[in-house]
Design goal:
A 5-stranded mixed β-barrel has the order 1-2-3-5-4. The chain contains 2 helices and 6 strands; from the N terminus they run ααββββββ. The two termini are about 55 Å apart. The chain is α+β, with helices and mostly antiparallel strands. It has helices spanning about 20-45, 50-65; strands at about 80-90, 100-105, 110-115, 130-135, 140-145, 150. The relative contact order is 0.14. About 25% of the residues lie in helices and about 30% in strands.
């Protein structure tokens, strides 16, 4: 910040200090405007994936009151989570057929597996699902095995 200096005209005898409060006020106004602009630009720069995650999280929160966000679930506890099915995979585990889905609620995702099943009618990518079960696996790759589930309409 610059220091106040005497006026450049030797005969004037005034200091150049009168403009500082106005300068500070103008700076504050610009910072408020730039903050608003930064908020708009940050929303415009968000990726399509981030925007979709926000949309899914908002709609899941609005649709379900008893579901816990997946990011707040702990390994080993019984959970009720709701989300959007992103992928359905048939994968054998120890020679048993297993249907696995990737369930995403906008905050995190969890793998849901039904061991001994080859297909589950009604579970397709884009479908919303409420799942009740015990969360297993690790913090990096959480899994719910053979849960109770409810089909819901897809996200609009």
């Amino acid at each position: 910040m610059r220091t106040p200096q005497a006026c450049c005209a030797p005969s004037c005898g005034e200091d150049d200090r009168s403009g500082y409060p106005e300068t500070v006020a103008i700076t504050r106004q610009r910072s408020d405007a730039s903050t608003r602009r930064a908020g708009i630009w940050s929303r415009l720069r968000r990726s399509l994936t981030q925007l979709e995650a926000d949309q899914v999280a908002e709609q899941v929160k609005r649709a379900s009151s008893d579901a816990t966000p997946m990011s707040q679930c702990a390994i080993g506890e019984r959970v009720c989570v709701e989300g959007l099915v992103r992928a359905v995979t048939l994968r054998p585990i120890n020679s048993n057929p297993t249907v696995e889905i990737d369930l995403f609620d906008g905050t995190s995702s969890v793998t849901v597996a039904w061991i001994g099943r080859r297909k589950l009618p009604g579970i397709t990518p884009g479908r919303r699902l409420v799942v009740h079960g015990r969360l297993a696996g690790s913090d990096v790759h959480p899994v719910i095995f053979n849960p109770r589930y409810e089909l819901r309409p897809g996200i609009e």
